[in-house]
């Protein structure tokens, strides 16, 4: 029995990791420009600093980045996500599948709460792997004048701020909170809605059903977590005043933003976030499911 279990589980784990990694890579390449737009909008204040353009909406940010910085600027900071997101997404789906049996809460089969809690735990664990790459990525994305080389940014951060909570792990508490809330909503809503909406016999319509549900689930999860995402970007990005740390901790960042810029500022970047995470999340989750089933049929 032990030998049979080992032979069965190991190939599934490898296939889950591979399917998650490939789906993550495809999603990053397609939707990274919207991540740049989201970051720019979240770190800007209400007034322009040093003559910088203040973006009024995602489309305005997209147009102005292209106009003043060139097409390639829309892929600023893509190296860190490609380096970490591909294996990270594979690891996330692997952990998500691994934790599901532990969160049935007495139910014979996985419930939407099972998927929500499993996704949340997987999201929390991945935060500790991805945080240094997020700091580097946001530093690159926020720099408007030129393209910063990834290794140069890494060396600069380590030299001046170190590896810890002031350096490469700056904003880790905000990232953990953001990931916990987002993945709870994403996996929970997706599986809850998918169970309610009947599956059509036609495979094309079934694919469309899953894409729409995944996009809706991702958008709802964005609304739940956007304030934490805004705080994360402000903590991890360049501070408004050079030499002064204005944004250090999650709750204080949210309070300061609300006090100085009002309630709407807590949802900065939501439009770009939904544009990116809605179709991006749909592509990620549905691609993972179909790739995993395809790989299972080929190799199991």
How would you sum up this structure, described in words?
InterPro entries: MCP_dom_sf, MCP_transmembrane, Mito_2-oxodicarb_carrier. With 300 residues, the chain is mainly α. The chain has one domain (2-299): Mitochondrial carrier domain (Mitochondrial carrier fold, Alpha/alpha barrel). The protein is built from 9 helices and no strands. Helix 4 (112-142) crosses helix 5 (150-161) and helix 7 packs across helix 8 (250-261). The longest helix is centred in the first third of the chain and has 42 residues, at 2-43. The radius of gyration is 20 Å and the shape is globular.
Topology:
Blueprint: H1 2-43, H2 58-69, H3 79-99, H4 112-142, H5 150-161, H6 172-196, H7 203-236, H8 250-261, H9 270-299
Membrane topology: Multi-pass membrane protein
Family: Belongs to the mitochondrial carrier (TC 2.A.29) family.
Keywords: Membrane, Mitochondrion, Mitochondrion inner membrane, Repeat, Transmembrane, Transmembrane helix, Transport
Task: Write a concise keyword list for the protein shown above.
300 residues, disordered N terminus, mainly alpha, Mitochondrial carrier fold
